[in-house]
């Protein structure tokens, strides 16, 4: 439902932020666009969802087709790498019956496109490698360019696709290093090799990545809920977030809105609600939307009764003392030596609105300290000017600065951002600027100002920065897992559960553990070779042995570079992050098969492949109820928990299969299931009646 919701936003053109690049989500949204779906749908209303013409089946089909592509890609990769047909068939068959890959291919998720693009890139690089003796010929260029296209597609689907870029990059560096050692190759020829790879494997992926974002921006023209996370300049480019030009000159008596610079939480805000503790005075918060409660009037630090809005404005310079009057409630922005209700810290004071139009005290005095300004507007560095001047407000009596951060107030504060007065507070969180400004006595020809409209590159950089912040985020999730658990398939992910059905992401243990064992064997073999070389023992490989060594090194490197970096990450991690590494591990099974069965005849090799295939299919069928969300016997489910860490819920299933019944939805159920459901419905109805009587 998550990515389906994002697809619906594409159809509606509403801006959103996701931690992953847009390509796969654009593919998912494509059926909705082609079907001319009007985008009017309540995704929370299940009956409306299934009765609508929303093309969710086609969206799932896209994921399914891309998942299918992995199979021929893997077959061709092994075959074109110079290994046997049996090995290629074995690898592709294992991928067909890998439960986790089937599960993620059946649903509207990003992992199927990621896997397809990773497998495609690997295949095309193999094709390019096979052309290395014919450099700069037509097919050499085609496969090199297509490798760059594959890299661009992969990283445009998920940022973890960058590991594929590193992988191909290291293989390319090795190729260039080998070419540099070829004394028969002229230096200018080597430079041509280098430039060709830079163009195709660096420039083309970057252009593709940026092109995907250009399409993304062109579709999402309207504002959306996530626009709040972007800068005002970015929001200004979205429909529904435009702002009229505002007078640039700010003086005493000006009615202004103050924006916090760093958190993008919004406007300095107050409303006629009070803190439940502390001073119990009127709340001051940050509010992300335009509202009349965001309006303040700047007054002099002298007599607050003077109506400065009725006389010609005088400007407000650096180090000037001011008072800020809240327009709707007529109180004053105020601070005192009372701890705030949420951030209960000695270096933070509460900020409130206090007093009245005719009453103010020295706790309402703030000093303007200009800290930055628009370089093209020198006046904005000396006095307050709308948008161009960045400044801090220093509270005279308490020695603290008006401050805000990402902390939210509880329900009594309407979940708005907390505003305090901080001593030694983070500098950037104490910076403010004036967004809108009005004064009745400003001349008609006064200079107007607005946000600078961002171009593509500025929007591209800002959105990627926000995405990176979201990508690094750490949050609690019931199915988080550590990379060390992935290779042993210690835990899966519960996708969906209802009544007697569930979908749980778990791999085929036979295939998964075999691939891990294969990786371990190749790692031990590589370490053994290194140790022997260190002791002076140099293995002399045959041509075939060198061939196996080359490709086992390539696929093992692919496994390492798609797996080991996750140990360095502090973000939330899940089992599906291992899928690209699993792909390379299964490719290694094909090499291992040819290596072990090198001296076997064709019949015996076929028997071994058949045994592997039968075992894979048997285990696949065993866990298929979790893959497809089918019915299952509770006893069978319990028996399938080979590891105690597999936490799918067997209590969802009933005890045994008897006569089949069909309910109104057409789903077949057993007599026992039918009885359980009727009993449950009866207990629920009795409980509801009891509650009605109590009410």
Automatic annotation (TrEMBL):
Entry annotated with the keyword Cytoplasm: no
Gene3D superfamilies linked: 2.80.10.50
InterPro entries in the cross-refs: ArnT-like_N, MIR_dom_sf, MIR_motif, PMT-like, PMT_4TMC
Reaction(s) the record says it catalyses: a di-trans,poly-cis-dolichyl beta-D-mannosyl phosphate + L-threonyl-[protein] = 3-O-(alpha-D-mannosyl)-L-threonyl-[protein] + a di-trans,poly-cis-dolichyl phosphate + H(+); a di-trans,poly-cis-dolichyl beta-D-mannosyl phosphate + L-seryl-[protein] = 3-O-(alpha-D-mannosyl)-L-seryl-[protein] + a di-trans,poly-cis-dolichyl phosphate + H(+)
GO molecular function, a single term: dolichyl-phosphate-mannose-protein mannosyltransferase activity
GO CC terms in record: endoplasmic reticulum membrane
Similarity-based family: Belongs to the glycosyltransferase 39 family.
Enzyme class: transferase
EC number of the protein: 2.4.1.109
MIR domain ranges (all copies): 247-301, 313-371, 381-437
Cell compartment(s), UniProt: Endoplasmic reticulum membrane
Entry annotated with the keyword ATP-binding: no
Protein name: Dolichyl-phosphate-mannose--protein mannosyltransferase
Annotated function: Transfers mannose from Dol-P-mannose to Ser or Thr residues on proteins.
Topology versus the membrane: Multi-pass membrane protein
Key words of the record: Endoplasmic reticulum, Glycoprotein, Glycosyltransferase, Membrane, Repeat, Transferase, Transmembrane, Transmembrane helix
Transmembrane portions of the chain: 57-77, 83-101, 108-128, 140-173, 194-219, 510-529, 550-569, 575-595, 607-628
Domain of life: Eukaryota
Metabolic or biological pathway, per its Swiss-Prot or TrEMBL entry: Protein modification; protein glycosylation
